[in-house]
């Protein structure tokens, strides 16, 4: 275009100007179309999948249902949720802290093993721990019944406490590890050098510096614990919590009014925790710990402390091995608790005729792709454009992490059951609900990555005359490549391990792995349940392995 | 005061400090100088008790502290990255070590006040570390260390994270504090100018061993070997051949000219024709016009003249290699043919396996050009 201008006018300097302006106008119009399309896509998706079901659900119960809040059944479930919430949150955070502390110390040997122990619950469904405890410590459990000959079981509050501690401590580890690594060896050395012992240094320097992050970990773990559905449904026995009670009301009694009321009762505290957590995070970024670690190696732990730490972590690791081992063992056992002979039947059931696992893998992969693309676009729209309603989009993208899975499931069941949005019973609704569950994590990854790309890079591209679309395709896409795959794997793991939301939406024709495991376990078909669980984990690990092979060290999933 | 006896330390089989012996006197300001990886920081950390030596011992005030941890040694460290506790105020930072000494509240307050006063931060006790500049933070760190009245103050490149002006300002302040309190200081730096400015004595280290120990004067004017001559200050390296020897002075042929040169160290006798590296400081060369005078001199062509303020730096091409000359004023211009009259020069005979100047290692340009 510029060459024609040059030949048609002997004074290019002057004549070029109106042409630039015309081009600039055209480009600005094109940019508007580009940004508008993207914003409409993101906004539409978030409104449809997040806002509409949540709001629609609130209109379901009549005044009568709300008044039943005072029923003793509800009060008991609420109380139980609070008790187990506090207990599991504290214990999981303490164990998570110990893991993170050990992982941040190079003088602790066997960190590789600890890392695997902290990773396992992150990449497998959390309710697998509950299933294993059922197998080991249940009424016909391997340890309680077979080995010890006891007639007791660990079901109920005690068992749930143990299970949630083991299932959710990695969340705390994941949150705490970067901070503990960042506190910087020099601060601890400085304290030792000024005359304090290891313990005093720990109490006066390490703990206070880690405190905001510990608070953050507590809030995060608490959100996971109180909204947990799989574990309480498997081993809660008579100990009913809100998420399970809502499930019973909705699926068992078809009393959706009551189910919604229970969901709201669970949603309010979760939302409050979520908002406090965002506050804590925002404030912490203002007072960051001195990032420089210096070249000093961390101060070695006193021998007694190191041994005690290793003993505790060894015990936890032993339990974890027992748990995942029993799942594996259970999948090869003909009939757990009755016939211990080995068999491949359950694997055959799970893998060869297992539509559920295939569905899980297929739907999760689809959901991961949709999530990754949508969250990257959302992050771009929110952080790199000045579109109206960016704040709302930002809020809607992170909101699903504050919505209990049970509530998502119930609200979707209510919203998408009738025209114009009759999706119940289709594969689409399962994929979309997985997308919603995976959106917050994907969005956070995308925002981090987008913010790492200096605005001056796309400013430079725009300055050189590139349109928005070209900046996105030629600058943003290539730079986001690594994050794309990471987000894809994250999304896949999140989608395949989700239970509470999808359990409401599966239909006889289209099943999924996670709900099937719970259903089988509830009917005492433990061999089949462990078979499907093991199969599901194999699929997860395979997905992870493929990504690892493709990306190598560039795949930074869980920084442990 | 501090007595290091044949200290050795290796990391993963790579020696960091080799058989180091060093004595630091009471009230002395000793600088450990060397490039990165020379073992200076490792030495300091062994004095502090952060690292346990593989062998050898550390004596402080005549007591062998080798088995003690950092909390049981009368030393205090000032770190490169300040290591100010971000969750405590300035005063709380300073009191941190005093509490460990179980001092009473009033005594702590008095000493905190005193320490803040000493570093010129009086009245800032209530501030948070993130409200302070880097220079202020490092002064808090110094105050925190001084408050516990250590026998030895250890400093690990404390000024290298600061900007140039603050650095020079703090140097002076540090000297004053040291003179006022009489504290023994061991100071690690890679900056030779800083070492010259601060140290009563300087220990130049390389590859975990001591290359030379002496006052700044001695190190700069009479370097024991080629490495010290090269590392401390700026120097021109000229390749030459010994043409004749007499006690305390050699005649060395450099680029066709025969110059009188002082032999370095204990290199008593060398055969005629032996190759040597000659070190000449830029300020020890005088520029003269092509035809001026008759003193033995090198001939060259001016390549560039840079006005640096206090000095003028002239780059002269002598037979293909560049000689840098510092003078008060130049008056020369590029392309001009000049004579370089060499004043003080030191000759370092080449020995097998010994350090060689990098330029001479590449090619003996001057010598080649002369031939």
Characterize the structure shown.
The complex is a heterodimer of chains A (560) and B (371). Chain A is mostly helical and 560 residues long. Chain A has helices at residues 2-8, 12-58, 63-67, 72-103, 111-123, 127-137, 142-147, 157-182, 185-193, 198-227, 230-235, 242-252, 256-286, 303-331, 345-352, 355-384, 390-398, 405-415, 427-452, 455-463, 468-479, 481-497, 513-522, 526-551, and strands spanning 333-335, 339-342. Chain A has a two-stranded antiparallel ribbon. The relative contact order of chain A is 0.13. The model of chain A is unreliable at 1-10 and 285-293 (pLDDT under 50). Chain B is 26% helix and 35% strand. Chain B has a six-stranded mixed beta sheet with strand order 6-7-8-3-9-10, sandwiched between helices. The N and C termini of chain B lie far apart (55 Å). The chains are: A mainly alpha (560), B alpha+beta (371).
In short:
With 560 residues, chain A is an all-alpha fold. Chain A has helices at 2-8, 12-58, 63-67, 72-103, 111-123, 127-137, 142-147, 157-182, 185-193, 198-227, 230-235, 242-252, 256-286, 303-331, 345-352, 355-384, 390-398, 405-415, 427-452, 455-463, 468-479, 481-497, 513-522, 526-551; strands at residues 333-335, 339-342.
Structural class call of chain A reads mainly alpha
Q: Helix amount of chain B, in percent?
A: 25-40%
User: How many angstroms does the end-to-end distance of chain A come to?
Assistant: 54 Å
Strand order, sheet with most strands of chain A: 1-2
